[in-house]
Protein 1
Amino acid sequence: MKKWLLLGIALYSANLAAFPRANPVPGGIALVPLAPASGQPPIVQYAGSRVTVMPIDNQWMALVGIPLDAEAGTQSLRLQNGATVNFQVKAKQYKTQRINIKDKNKVNPDDESSQRIVRELAIQKQIKAHFTEGAATLDFIKPAPGRDTGRFGLRRVINDQPRNPHSGMDIAAAKGTPVKVAAAGRVLYTGDFFFSGNAVYVDHGAGVISMYAHLSAIDVAVGDAVQQGEVIGKVGSTGRATGPHLHWSVYLNGEAVDPALFLPNKK
Ligand SMILES: [Zn+2]
């Protein structure tokens, strides 16, 4: 009897944690209802990229990652049969964060570094847009304990120069702190990047990708299956970083979205 009760509670809470919160702003997520869920999920594209589609309450739902530079107003999804489904994006102003980086080459890269950056951006663009057919795993945990020191979307001014907005969540943690994968999946890529430093990308299926950067050590290899909470590396300050911390990104349809939307709301 007790066992069944516990199982019921476990299933209920798993259900609650199973989907990100919608926040249809630039850098947020739009949940767009498509059709009653039966058979195969519809194939949906947004700005030329495949979109994550999941059944929610017997309805196929598109989980759209809205680019940070998206315009507010009406946006469209394109279905395989040519039909379009509209959704609304609301405006959002992100705050500015000023940081100082000691390594000047990480702020104003020399020619050799610039060439490396261009190569790496192309690789990262491809990884972020990876789409594996099947269901997505959307039950997420925070990958390391610690204070949020850099929220997603902050407009960055580095050494007094404007740079790209912040594409993830920064979590303060000491060097060597274990980094736990946010959700079950498969290691898609590991590498050493000019800005991200040692980084691990994990594929959670159906276009949901997470990324962990500035690591001092990587403990997994490409192709490894990982369970939620499994240690994939250690906190560090490799790449462009002011000090040891974990940079955590989540991508939907190749676009970085606010990872906080995948965690229980603290407010
Ligand atoms: Zn960061």
Protein 2
Amino acid sequence: MRLHTRIVEVIEENPDVKTFRFRFGKVVQAGQFCMVWDGNGEEVPMSFSYTAGLKGITVRRVGHTTALLHNLKEGATLRLRGPLGNGYPVQSMKYLIVAGGTGIASLAPAAEAIAHAGGEFVFLAGFRTAREIFFIDRLKKLGTVLLATDDGTAGYRGVVTGLVEKVLAEQEFDACLTCGPEIMMQRVSALTGDIPTYCSLERLMKCGIGICDACSVGGLQVCKDGPVFRAEMLRNLGVWA
Ligand SMILES: Cc1cc2nc3c(=O)[nH]c(=O)nc-3n(C[C@H](O)[C@H](O)[C@H](O)COP(=O)(O)OP(=O)(O)OC[C@H]3O[C@@H](n4cnc5c(N)ncnc54)[C@H](O)[C@@H]3O)c2cc1C
Ligand code: FES
């Protein structure tokens, strides 16, 4: 069922990314997503970027529908189906969290849930450049946050997987959560080795509920069986080399 809700707040995180906060009475787990429709464009999948109190989605403008969403102002109506899919496993243990770009949208609430459950995290966030950085102040209050930028304008200079190597050489972790470009997640899971590593996949989606098969990978449906998968499973099914 599609729920109509009004946008309470719009936050411009950077020139290409906006967060929309709204009331949504259902319980949402970090890592779950919703199908969002502005009433004109397509319905598109978006992770919940806030899962407690006022809920939120954080949208990077990449094409037609995300541009329409970016035009929405406070008070406008959002039409949502969800929460959909599974979430990240959250326990009282030590996590390595690795975000690439907008991947931070689904991982920030996971870090909050881990802290709330009594666990701890080291959060590695990679961006292209300093002016694209968002959500960091929100996370610094709860755990260790290290930045990587491709151009070196903030934190470690280079791709975030370089930072993963450094941190893994110094610390031990019980589990790893990662979301971002698939090539980044594959590299992260190669580096984490035996540490259980959970990756959030993005695929084109239509129904979001396991009917149309638009999102299938290796016999799995990303919308229903995921979007969060163990890296080991993706390799065993041949989704990843
Ligand atoms: C489970 C899930 C969670 C997501 N969470 C977020 C989020 O929190 N924030 C966010 O900004 N985006 C998120 N996305 C991606 C988002 O759904 C797409 O960017 C959006 O559908 C693009 O629509 P568009 O009409 O603006 O772009 P289009 O014109 O349709 O496409 C523009 C470009 O984006 C690519 N693209 C389109 N749809 C997807 C998709 N589903 N996955 C990957 N690439 C796509 C196209 O191949 C093309 O290169 C998520 C996707 C999934 C599957
Ligand atoms: S989007 Fe239809 S089956 Fe996943």
Protein 3
Amino acid sequence: MKARILKKLGIEPVNNESFQIFIASIKTIMEYAGDVESLANWNAPILSDLNKLSSSEIELIKSEVQNTNLSIKECQVEVQKLIPQEKRKKFAVYYTIQQGTDLMTSIVKEFLSSRKEKVVLVDPFLGSGSTLTAAIEKIGVEKVEKVWGIEPLPLPALVAYVSLLHSMNGKRDAVTVILGDAFEEIPKMFSPPFVQSKLPKADIILTNPPFTRWKYLEKKYREHILSVIEKLGYKKYITRKEVSLQTLSMFLCDRILNNNGLLISVLPASTFYTIYGRGYKSLLKEKYGIYAMVESKSRVSFSEDSGFKEIIIVAVKGSNKKLTA
Ligand SMILES: C[S@@+](CC[C@H](N)C(=O)[O-])C[C@H]1O[C@@H](n2cnc3c(N)ncnc32)[C@H](O)[C@@H]1O
């Protein structure tokens, strides 16, 4: 019956570990909900599909929820390891490790030290929400107006939603997680003509974009995302032969970041010394003040299992170009 539940909810892979993570997520969300059935009306990844379950399947979920000791924090790390190798590589499911999120969030705290207004936090390549939950924990719920992100894989998206809800003390209106592709969702919300988007632009982006090798992406998809980025106004920064998924992802980040907003991102170090990052470097020079580029002394990467040499870039958008907002 567990496998049938996972299939009906679109959760992959269909195995006991996935089921346990699903159950731990439901247990956490139940701290803020009336009953399991009512979750089907929540605007959250996967949950509307609870409508497809029979009453005996719902009863099984309820009884499993009583028996789990898995914490949502553990799920945030473990969920990436369940993804089959091929898919993990394709989507770059290599989440930011604690050393990275510690550094990112200390900088956010400093950035906000003299700012009284609440902020909008965003990660358009959300994974299980590690960067944003760490930030909320560091700066405090009271500083956060809204937190949102996009993630294409259903179970990580659910874990991210639940983790964010939990770190926001159950404030449902303040949390949005879109199950989807950022190259589809961001243009839908933030393209001209500028209709008011239902989500606000970011004051702070904390991310680690997918860095799948360009040649491993399907040709049709490559063409599609190139034209998406060109239409968003970044054509002058793109030489079609010299692109990478991570630089196109960073143009999307630029699209949704407010002026004077803070960008902190893990990026492959190669972005800054190969021709593939040339266009993004031009954008950074024109529009941003670069505050720091940090590498780790003790590890090559800031992402779990990635194996890439990575850095963390800290930049402020706009003419002000100072770290203090
Ligand atoms: C390197 S991981 C980082 C996850 C998270 N930001 C973190 O720092 O832990 C990249 C994430 O981007 C997601 N991803 C891949 N392609 C995407 C796309 N087109 N739109 C949105 N997210 C995507 C992957 O599923 C993965 O969770």
Protein 4
Amino acid sequence: MDPGRVYQVWNPGRLIFGPGALGEISKEFTTRDKPLIVTDEGVVRAGILDKVTDLFARAEVRYDIFNRVVADTPIETVEEAASFYRERGCASIIGLGGGSSIDTAKAVAVRVSGDGTLREYGSGRPIPDCLPPIYAVPTTAGTGSEVSAVAVVSDHEGKMKVGIKSPLLVPKVALLDPLLLSTIPFRTAAETGADALSHAIEAYLSINSNVITDGMALSAMRMITSNLEKFAANPEETEAAGRMLLGSCLAGLSFANAGLGLVHGLAHSVGAYYHVSHGLSCALYLCAVMEFNVPACPEKFVSMAEALGVDVRGLSSEKASSQAVDAVRGLFSRLAIPKTFSEMGIEFRLDPKMVDDTYTAPVAKGNPRQAQPEQIAALFLSVQGTVSG
Ligand SMILES: [Fe+2]
């Protein structure tokens, strides 16, 4: 951090944290309110939506439900949810689920408040300052969207992600309840955890980091690396689930202020082209990008290595850096996260547009080392795996 630089730190909305925190949700609404609950079928099947609607029924809070969110929500789904919101006369929005549900809730809030398209708002058109209140209830420990000023949706036609950024998108209240994570599948826990770890590492290395975001990012790294395996193997264990939820939230607070880097630039492009889950897309590139970034900030890698569980005593910054990368590689390997496209049965072909999109991606602007197009191409191809023919 440059002590001579002026920087700002945005505070989030209100956080309500702890086992049973969901019980507080009905206190946020009166009988005159009518929130739209934006969620997905997995949350419905896990019985989590019923918990919310039971609480609302007891408190006589009216609500409507949109449960058709899918991973990497297409713009068209947001439009459908926004029409439903208007038809039903809703007055606030609850994102209940993983990052896709919370981001969809934010994007719906934007669409019901202004007449611009999501592509326009993603290209810098100002967000209307009359958004309905947004509430976030995460059911995964990864996204950080519950405290961030960003919503990412998919433009399938343009084969790209649309990122909308505004402090107005920070949810008014985020309810973080580890009991809601108790049925998360192993793979989802592992991949969303990899996303959270990527947020912490990218925010920490970002050129826009500061002493406050650094503290949050290092705490997040410690919590995630020491709890992710326990959590993925046994999500019913409340302590590990709670620490993961807190770790991903801290990582979210950190990147909401410091920004992200090249991992997310590459991951968004791969997500748009190959529909690989966001967490897995980040996991694929995290180690390669860490190695790429070492020359830009070797001293930061020493403190990062320590937070990732490396005993750095007596290590040179070069050794500590390589052991930091090894620590992440080892964690992902123990979680059986695929390392290449061929391991996933995907034949990866690099479209030059993927390189262009990543080179110009606003999300990658915080990366501590500027990557040239040929270096971006090499990073994409580094996880191609075995190529047939
Ligand atoms: Fe992410």
